[in-house]
């Protein structure tokens, strides 16, 4: 049977989406591997106190990264993934410039804190202050390339960053000058190389137009920044609370269970990185197509988690101990509930993708607050009732309940979209998020 033009276009779109997802997986795997190698290199070359200082510096970087993505690259992905190349280039110039500005602002805070604290922590925070602008720029290129359907360029940029970091680390170690300061400088050098190469790849020069960019996206950027802080903050506070209530052994069990599930995080974040731009493009065609994509993401990630859980449950005792040592018995006892935590997170990702496509930052923030609170309360209640195992089951119940909140908010947003289409009539344009302009009434969501 002869293929119709519409069928050919649909297959091409499907192929592009699948290719983008694969590049997302490859890119996230490489990025996670690079961070892992960096941590191992630092741990092997410095004292435990210096490694603790590096950990604080890395946590500082993650906070700055959360803010940068919320105000710079998330708006770029949401608003410009379905635009033409010229619009993408202009927006990418302003978004990457905003990421650099966040790097300078957070770098100033890091510099002041490093000088004030001094010691090993200061030795890590001061060089980080210099490196933050280029490190955040390098990460911004990843999101920009996926927004422009150039996932391969994102992978190449991360590969260049990895190679540059490797050369810098080897140079520092071989020269015998390995300290927490020089190793952080090597990390910054890798980011600088990746940031410069990104300019050449995109043929876009970052432009510092921060007030205009933030004004354009004032309806979504602040809320997404708060959402990111809530997500990371709730998890860290929960672990501290569990240590007080049930002891460090319970924390060790939860962390060990998370480590066993870490392989799935590569798939989760890799798919998320590539799927959000595709979701934005789908919404310009059909809300029903977006809903099917969100369901597929939730179902696919849940199935992968279930399969991985079976593998973990069948691991022989010697293999488990080789992986986690004496912590293996604690981890094995919480595999099932921590798998349910991961499945709940996978279901939530489907809702997150849909709300990101709608730019429904208000609904997304409400869902994040509710789901984080449910996870926190569940974990605390479980710790009081049943120690480590109770903590894991309480978190699982909380995260699964939180996934219902995400999908409820997405359902409401889609219902509103349907009502708009019905009001416009059969000949009216389909209601969709305004990706042509950022002048969206914040009160709508």
Q: How would you describe what is shown here?
A:
The structure is a single chain. The protein has helices at residues 5-45, 48-80, 85-117, 119-147, 151-174, 180-202, 210-216, 221-246, 248-260, 262-283, 287-313, 317-324, 328-333, 335-358, 361-424. The chain has 445 residues and is mainly alpha-helical.
Largest sheet descriptor: none
**Cα-to-Cα separation, first versus last residue:** 46 Å
Name the poorly predicted regions. Answer: 1-15, 426-445
Helix-strand topology string: HHHHHHHHHHHHHHH
How much is the average pLDDT?
Answer: 83
Q: What structural category characterises the helix and strand content?
A: mainly alpha
Global outline:
globular
């Amino acid at each position: 049977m002869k293929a119709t033009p519409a069928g050919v276009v649909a297959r091409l779109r499907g192929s592009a989406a699948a290719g983008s997802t694969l590049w997302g997986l490859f890119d996230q795997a490489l990025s996670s591997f690079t961070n892992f190698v960096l941590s191992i290199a630092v741990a092997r070359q410095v004292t435990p106190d210096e490694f603790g200082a590096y950990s604080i510096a890395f946590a500082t970087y993650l906070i700055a990264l959360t803010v940068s993505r919320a105000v710079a690259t998330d708006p770029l992905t949401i608003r410009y993934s379905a635009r033409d190349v010229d619009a993408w280039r202009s927006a990418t110039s302003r978004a990457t410039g905003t990421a650099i500005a966040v790097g300078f602002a957070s770098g100033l805070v890091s510099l002041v804190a490093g000088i004030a604290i001094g010691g090993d922590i200061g030795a890590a925070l001061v060089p980080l202050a210099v490196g933050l602008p280029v490190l955040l720029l390098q990460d911004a290129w990843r999101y920009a390339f996926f927004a422009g359907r150039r996932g391969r360029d994102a992978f190449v940029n991360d590969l260049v960053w990895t190679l540059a970091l490797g050369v810098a680390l080897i140079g520092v170690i071989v020269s015998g000058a390995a300290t927490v300061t020089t190793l952080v400088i090597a990390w910054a050098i890798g980011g600088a190389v990746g940031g410069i190469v990104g300019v050449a790849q995109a043929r876009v020069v970052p432009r510092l137009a921060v007030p205009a960019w933030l004004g354009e996206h004032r309806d979504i950027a602040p809320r997404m920044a708060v959402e990111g802080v809530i997500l990371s903050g709730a998890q860290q506070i929960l672990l501290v609370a569990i240590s007080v209530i049930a002891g460090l052994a319970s924390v060790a069990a939860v962390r060990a269970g998370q480590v066993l599930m870490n392989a799935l995080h590569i798939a989760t974040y890799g798919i998320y990185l590539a799927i959000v731009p595709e979701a934005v493009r789908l919404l310009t065609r059909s809300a029903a197509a977006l809903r099917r994509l969100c369901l597929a993401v939730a179902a696919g990630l849940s199935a992968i988690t279930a399969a991985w859980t079976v593998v973990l449950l069948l691991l022989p005792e010697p293999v488990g101990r080789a992986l986690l040592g004496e912590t293996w018995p604690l981890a094995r006892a919480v595999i099932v509930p921590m798998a349910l935590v991961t499945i709940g997170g996978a279901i939530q990702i489907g809702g997150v993708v849909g709300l990101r496509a709608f730019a429904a930052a208000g609904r997304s923030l409400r869902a994040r607050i509710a789901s984080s609170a449910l996870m926190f309360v569940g974990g605390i209640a479980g710790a009081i009732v049943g120690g480590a195992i109770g903590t894991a089951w309480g978190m699982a119940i909380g995260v699964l309940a939180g996934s219902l909140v995400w999908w409820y908010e997405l359902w409401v947003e889609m219902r509103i979209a349907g009502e708009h289409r019905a009001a416009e009539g059969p000949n009216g344009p389909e209601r969709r998020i305004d990706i042509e302009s950022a002048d969206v009434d914040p009160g709508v969501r």
